[in-house]
Amino acid sequence: MSNRTILVGMAATFAGLTALLVVAGVVVNPILLAVAVPIGTAAYLLWYHASGRLQAQIRREADRLGPTERERARQRARAAENRRDAYRTAGAAGSGAGGATAGGRTGRQWTGTAGTGDPRDRAPRANGMSEREAYATLDLDPTADADAVRSAYRDRAKQLHPDAETGDEEAFKRLNRAYDRLSD
């Protein structure tokens, strides 16, 4: 038997019990009416769940509210980690044989003269890509969650990476900008 069949059977049983208690409450003792109310409520909730309407309502509410606070915290942590990786890569690639690069960086250590030397002071500006364009670049629906974004990015990156047979450097850069936009 399926779960839906079981839920419908339980809802019917609770509904029958509610009807019996209402009749007994009218004929025998009014206290039985107070007992019928929670059992009737349970019957309604079981039916609501068995019909699939409860799940649909929960999904609509979740879509309306957007990502949870926990998911937003994960996205912020991933964005911070991506920024750190980008600065490490930029520092290592631009350092040559350990010498200073333009802007006062040496290796992985930031020693610039502007501001405090914190890499966030020199964070790149927004790439100008809208969220809608980013989802379109990744071929995703705007309601996609962070795992779907990451999965789509990885699949497309394998195809578009310049080292791949079918690689396209400009498309790969655009893909990276889209992923950065959605992971912030």
Q: Could you explain how this protein is built, in words?
A:
It is built from seven helices and two strands. The protein has 184 residues and is mainly alpha-helical. It has three domains: 3-65; 72-124, no CATH class; 128-184, Orthogonal Bundle (Helix Hairpins), CATH 1.10.287.110. It has a two-stranded antiparallel sheet with strand order 1-2. A hairpin with a 2-residue loop joins strand 1 and strand 2.
The end-to-end distance, rounded to whole angstroms, is: 46 Å
Give me the number of helical elements.
7
Summarize model confidence as the mean pLDDT.
Answer: 78
Largest sheet report: 2 strands, antiparallel
- Listing every helix as H and every strand as E from the N terminus to the C terminus, the arrangement reads HHHHEEHHH
What is the global morphology? elongated
* Low-pLDDT ranges: 95-116, 118-125
User: How many runs of DSSP E, i.e. beta strands?
Assistant: 2
Strands ordered across the widest β-sheet: 1-2
- Category from helices, strands and their pairing: mainly alpha
Assign a percent range to the helix content: 55-70%
Radius of gyration in whole Å, from Cα?
29 Å
Q: Quote the beta fraction.
A: under 5%
List the domain count as a whole number.
3
What is the quaternary state of this protein?
A: single chain
